[in-house]
Amino acid sequence: MKRNFGIFSAIFFIVSFFASCSSDAFEKRPYYISSLETSGSYATFDFYNNTDKEIESIVFSARIYDSEGESAIFGTNGIKTTFDYSVPARSHESVTLALQEIVGPEYEDSYILDFLYAKEIKYKDGSSWSDPFGYYCF
Fold first, then answer.
1. Strands 111-123 and 128-130, bridge-based pairing
2. Cβ atoms < 10 Å from Cβ of 83
């Protein structure tokens, strides 16, 4: 019994120690996405640049579904598109994605967008930031 208590105590200590760790990656969020709306074959949302750098381009990633909640793209529902537009430091821009251009010629009247995030951000100063796993998804 004492041996089990010792093992339990050790595991509890280790888990507690690592659970209390923090990372700067989650404290300094470089952008915010809000007000996502889909209307027909367009998705519109607000993008806020939360840095002191001007953005040169953004690669957005999302999952796209048809009006019945099924994958809108054959094989996968993951999409990726590049937004080549300057976003000044500490400001927001309204972004509109034409979903029919992403899905292809057999598009429907309406889509549902989910798990939207900036996969990569390139800044005017030549630096970049990436989020390959979508930690900051909307």
1. antiparallel
2. 17
